[in-house]
Amino acid sequence: MSVTATSSVFPKLSEPLGLFGGTFDPVHFGHLRLAEEAITHLGLGGVRWIPAGQPPHRGTPQVTPQQRLEMVLRSTGNNARFSIDASEVEAAAPSYTVHTLERLRRELGPEQSLVLLVGADAFAGLASWHRWRDIFALAHVAVSHRPGFPVEISSLPHELATEFNDRRLTDAAGLKRAPAGAIATFAMTQLAISATQIRKLLANDLSARYLLPDAVLDYIARNQLYKST
Ligand code: ATP
């Protein structure tokens, strides 16, 4: 596992590279299984985790970007296929995915297949993201199933449903044929875990054990995070 910052040059991969952004407030087993199963189901060479600094789509997280980054580091450190990109955490500006993808394209070149990994709930909101249509020129998008969020055209807003229909891959091998532009779906093990649920448990002094790695729980306890105020 390696950590990269803005100035780093990434290694060229022959397989598609997964990019997994999120608030990770805190990171949990739903995130970890998504990244792990994306490698298997989509034939990725690895997954680069990109914790958001100042997420534009939600309120300010209760813990600092550095603490969320630290928790991701602790939970992914023993997986050689995972790496971490700390650029969004270190940036002063809001973390827009399209900017991060433009930066990665500049660093990795036009040939590298990039696959933006999102859960079904995040995908359903994609049309509200900054310059969302530009994302397809920069990366593929792979959508994981998530309990409570069906990946169906009928449940998507019209403009996103059109893109989904036009770009949808039936075979993950298509992610290797082009560097960007397709939408794939994959059925990961369904885990009805959310960071919201974990924050609520911890704020009420209830156990969140077995929903997230012990190393993350230890870090939370030691730093007294997510306590009710
Ligand atoms: P919160 O409850 O605070 O909104 P979250 O648990 O959804 O957080 P995020 O950090 O917002 O976690 O999610 C990062 C990415 O991981 C998103 O694309 C989200 O859809 C996906 N994801 C999170 N939890 C799961 C899960 N249990 N199953 C599948 N995908 C998930």
Structure description:
The protein is an alpha/beta fold. The protein has a single domain (17-191), classed as HUPs (Rossmann fold, 3-Layer(aba) Sandwich). Helix content is 36%, strand content 15%. It is built from ten helices and seven strands. The protein has helices at residues 29-42, 65-76, 87-90, 97-108, 120-124, 135-138, 158-167, 174-177, 195-203, 214-222, and strands at residues 2-4, 17-22, 46-51, 82-85, 114-119, 140-144, 183-186. It has a seven-stranded parallel beta sheet. Helix 2 packs antiparallel against helix 10 (214-222). The longest helix has 14 residues, at 29-42. The radius of gyration is 17 Å and the shape is globular. The chain starts with a strand and ends in a 7-residue tail after the last helix. Adenosine-5'-triphosphate (ATP) binds at residues 22-25, 30-31, 34, 118-119, 121-122, 144, 146, 191, 193-196. Residues 22-25, 30-31, 34, 118-119, 121-122, 144, 146, 191, 193-196 line the site of adenosine-5'-triphosphate.
Describe this protein with a few key phrases.
alpha/beta; about 230 residues; 7 strands; Rossmann fold; binds adenosine-5'-triphosphate; 7-stranded parallel beta sheet; about 35% helix
